Predict the 3D structure of the following.
Amino acid sequence: MKIVIVGGVAGGMSAATRLRRLKEDAEIVVFEKGPYVSFANCGLPYYLSGEISERENLLVQTPESLAARFQLDVRPNHEVTAVYPDEKKVEVLSDGKKWQESYDVLLLSPGAKPVRPAISGLAEAKNVYTVRNVPDIDLVMNALEEQPKKAVVVGAGFIGLEMAENLKKRGLAVSIVELAPHVLPSLDEEMAVHIQNELIKQGVHVQTKCSVTAFEHGGKQLRLDDGTTIDSDLTILSVGVQPDSTLAKMAGLETGLRGGIVVNEHYQTSDPSIYAVGDAIVVKQQITGADALISLASPANRQGRQAADNIAGIVRNNRGSLGTSIVRVFDLAAASTGLTERMAQQANLPFSVVHVSGKDHASYYPEATDILLKLIFHPKTGEIYGAQGVGAKGVDKRIDSLATAIKGQLTIFDLPELEFTYAPPFGSAKDPVNMLGYVAMNVAEGLSETIQWHELPEALAQGKILLDVRNEGELQNGAFKDALNIPLNDLRCRLAELDHEKEYIVSCHSGLRSYLAERILKQAGFHVQNLDGAFALYHAVRPEDLIYPEK
Ligand code: FAD
């Protein structure tokens, strides 16, 4: 059997090596149009600042090492320019020569390419870069030799943020321009705002709700849609990726969402002899079952291996993707899995949301840092739809646990049952993930009724009363306008000040005391909701709505 693979990085190389482990007698040829295979695309941004100091560390394998260990015929600088499914042949271009190569099975893992929008002056601009592979990062490194002072990153997704951080660490003045209302649009606003604040704290200039309309003076000036301009010596364009499916389309294979290659659950395209995996394919979002494009390394590697199994006769089904991801931005990390609140809304799912703030390890043990977690779940069954986390440390562990819980079909009712490793330097006896379970269960079982930060202004306009149960001294750090203040410890003896005919929303600093207040008030017969995430969350996302006593 001759298996030809197009694309020699994550999905393609996982497939190739697995195929060799399963089929010692197969002829396996990998065509890669770039000069390197099995390179660390995810490591590219860190090479800019020197955090990954050696270029060769980005090159994980070579054709020679792959031939020696796996007897693979790996050919870099070979572009597959056409596929002829009827003849089971591909056309290959290398070194100016073109020829045809036959296959029994073809596997496409061509990845995703950076989007280059049709912006005036982009074609003429000499200092605008996209980042996909080692030659791309070499170009940026060469540009850095010219000692640029100002960099602009257009697009604040994962790659844009990583590039911004590393350019800043390299000593450039960095500006980010993002079209969405906040950076990291794949997270919900009140979570992403922490990353935005971290960028600002680290001296990165951030402009949101803003798009670039023109590159002027050869790219030295960017014009924005509000009419202002920003000077740039070096610009990184990171406004998203799209499936690199030109070859598949030319071959007449079925494509779908944004040009992604359509495959069945065994990764077969519309031609059963041609398989496709990785960033180029349309997958099922595991929770909604909707078509999705998920450009991440873990799904690409898994799919490559599963497609290889199917080719070798071991049946494996693609069970869909959650899109679990993480990004570090200076001293903070932000991670997510599954659906965001926005996605749950768009999918018309019934859902509840809770936020929990905790510490990465026991609060009394030195150097504990804050973690904010968010959980989105079915209000009755407790099915977990998604989770997000932001913090300096331990966010990966919590979101990984929750991603595992979703894959294992655990519900919110199982989260308190999860037994995590615990000693003070590592965690807490009640881990923030356990706490998410407790809080979500309180909501699902009707012990607590939450209201989200974005619902607060309307609720207050309808006449609900905000009751802040923080101590008076805490109000100096900022307070809600027109809120009643009764410190929690006084609440039981001041119930007479409240009106049974009114509806109350309770808040404290982070949501713990307000829950206690909610329970006191509920049991005293008051109508009450708990402001989820409380003052701290509201303060992070809508500081302009609060009042700050004059210093
Ligand atoms: P790729 O790994 O991109 O491989 C596709 C290869 O196919 C390319 O090398 C391309 O040259 C080749 N090719 C395309 N067409 C042809 C053709 N016609 N002939 C021959 N060869 C062809 N994911 C994460 O999960 N975490 C991260 O931290 C992360 N960081 C990233 C940082 C950067 C800068 C980039 C660019 C990506 C990052 N990703 C990250 C995404 C991750 O790298 C991809 O999801 C993953 O590599 C996709 O695997 P793939 O096999 O589909 O495509």
Summary: The longest strand covers residues 352-359.
